[in-house]
Amino acid sequence: MVDILHRIAVEGRTTDDVYQALATIDGLADWWTEDTTGGTGTGEEIAFRFPQGGFDMKVLESEPGRRVLWEVVGGTPEWIGTRIHWDLRQEEDWAVVLFKHEGWAEPIEFMHHCSTKWASFLLSLKALVEDGKGAPAPRDVRVDNWG
Amino acid sequence: MVDILHRIAVEGRTTDDVYQALATIDGLADWWTEDTTGGTGTGEEIAFRFPQGGFDMKVLESEPGRRVLWEVVGGTPEWIGTRIHWDLRQEEDWAVVLFKHEGWAEPIEFMHHCSTKWASFLLSLKALVEDGKGAPAPRDVRVDNWG
């Protein structure tokens, strides 16, 4: 099993501010994909849709200002059963976000792509919480010929 | 051992164009760090310096338009002995870059940070080769409170 790891920090904001962008439909739609629907409570499912497809995430944990954990229950076969961890911590004026997309079976080329896309979406999340301006799909940053 | 993986593709350019940005001092200085010196031939060492420190890379392989491989021989202890792979492939109008920073001992928090920083520098490389405008240190994109 292999994982995608990232770290961002949001300046001048709190982990509660970041949590709002991870645990509400409107927040998620403002940095990941505009077509986000469903429920963000523990045990509920969130449907993320992109021009090329989408993912359904089951919310396994959601603790305000601390953490969110999703399991992928629908979408691209390579993602099914993987888990996405969001761990939040305040360091003085910075809200630190530790990200892990855990449980890929193999380090396939699609995983390389997703790692770079996750980084660009995390920078979209940072821009949203700092300045109110994310870049969710379909207005997202293109990283390669796959999207 | 754990690895950082990324994938970008440069539109309207060839793998030879990308290779120039990976295998010349001027090219490297235009997307990673302005303070880049040394030699880029096989067996030579490149010194990359940043405001906070730096890395020395030994060039293990350098094949025009195909691949570059470095081994970290100086710098942050967590990086020493790790290897950085650049594999290039043309897909129609796109020059695809598969990146791997291989051989981290543990998935420490610093590795999360470096994964996101690598993504932002890879997008700097893409912008350089597509449009002539990279964002090397010290003009690089800040991802968190570490840089």
Give a description of the structure.
Chain A has helices at 15-22, 25-29, 109-131; strands spanning 2-11, 35-38, 45-50, 53-63, 67-75, 83-91, 94-104. Chain A is α+β, with helices and mostly antiparallel strands and 147 residues long. Chain A has a single domain (2-131), classed as Alpha-D-Glucose-1,6-Bisphosphate, Chain A, domain 4 (2-Layer Sandwich), CATH 3.30.530. Chain A has a seven-stranded antiparallel β-sheet. In chain A, strand 2 and strand 3 form a beta hairpin. The first copy, chain A, is globular and about 40 Å long. Chains A and B meet through strand 1, strand 7 and helix 3 of A and strand 1, strand 7 and helix 3 of B. Chains A, B: Pfam families: AHSA1 (PF08327). Chains A, B: This is SRPBCC domain-containing protein. Chains A, B: Residues 16-130 form the Activator of Hsp90 ATPase homologue 1/2-like C-terminal domain. Chains A, B: InterPro entries: ASHA1/2-like_C, START-like_dom_sf.
Task: Offer a few descriptive terms.
homodimer, 147 residues, alpha+beta, Alpha-D-Glucose-1,6-Bisphosphate, Chain A, domain 4, 7-stranded antiparallel β-sheet, SRPBCC domain-containing protein (chains A, B), START-like_dom_sf (chains A, B), ASHA1/2-like_C (chains A, B)
How is this fold's topology laid out?
The structure is a homodimer of 147-residue chains.
Chain A: E1 2-11, H1 15-22, H2 25-29, E2 35-38, E3 45-50, E4 53-63, E5 67-75, E6 83-91, E7 94-104, H3 109-131
Antiparallel strand pairs in A: 1-7, 2-3, 3-4, 4-5, 5-6, 6-7
